[in-house]
Each structure stands twice: as structure tokens, then as C-alpha cells.
Amino acid sequence: MEIRLLRWIRHRWLDDAALRLPHGIVERLAEGIRHCEQGHSAQVSLHIESSLPTSYLWRKQEMSALLEIRAKDLFASKGIWDTEENNGLLIYLCLAERSVELVFDRAIQRAIAAAEWKSMLSRMAQHVQSSDIEVGMLELLGEMSTLLAEHFPVTQGRTLTNEISDTPTLQ
């Protein structure tokens, strides 16, 4: 009970942290996502959350499990699983926990081994821990673009459709 109370306090304390992000970061990250998506057919979504909703904080689960559940819930609620080629992915950033999660649709899970994402995620986590979110996110998007282009190249004569908004959502 005490751990959950401390968790709740930390998350409520940082509840408006997303509003204190550096000026212009949302636009720069949206541009990073647009640039990332140019070389492949995958769809990338970014969700930045200052803290977990209260309904997650009182659950009797480890924080890592809660973050994974939250990311999967957002993936589902945003309809990222519903892209034409089943190659959507969500980058979920929780500022209160200084944590980043990735959730992939079926085609990405089949095509790219989890180990390939781990090193990217590890480097991004280091940036998040040092509060250098923008640099870390832009590096992550660059690395993702290369990996996704290898597995989901744009076919000749095909026009890419942007099925998911490039603008990061803040909550």
C-alpha cells in the first residue's frame, strides 16, 4: 500500500510535466516523425504522458508491467493496429517514470526481432534519464527509419498514405 501511495504522489506531482516541455518540441518531433516515415511504409505514432492515469497507479503490479499495459492500451485506443499493412508502431514516453515503451503491430513483430529494438530502446532510455528527450527521440526515429526501411521499403510507383497523425500527443 505504501509503495502505491508513493507512486501515486510522484505521478500526481508531475501531472502537468508535459506542459513544461521545451518550446517547439512537439513541432520538431512531428517533423522527425514525418522524416522517419519517408523511407518506409510503416506508421509511427508518439504519445508523451506526464504521468500514468490514477486507475493504473493503484494496481498491484510492478511499474514496468503497468507501463507496458498503458502503452498497449494506447496502441489499441488510437487504432494503430488498424493500418492497411499492419505495420503501425507506438512510441510511449512516460515522463514521471522516465521510461519509454514500444508497441508494434503484427507485421513489425513478425519482420523484426525484439533484440534489434532493445539497443535502440536502451539508448533512448539513457536520453530520457538525462532529460534529453528531444535529442534521444530524434535519434530513435532516425534509427527506426533505417530499420523499418529495410523491412518495409516503399515499392516503386506506390504513393504512401499517412494513416496515423505525425503530431505527438501529449497527456
UniProtKB/TrEMBL annotation:
This is TPM domain-containing protein. Residues 27-143 form the TPM domain. InterPro entries: TPM_dom (IPR007621). Gene3D superfamilies: 3.10.310.50. It comes from the Bacteria. It comes from Rhodoferax potami. PANTHER family: BLL7265 PROTEIN, UPF0603 PROTEIN YGCG.
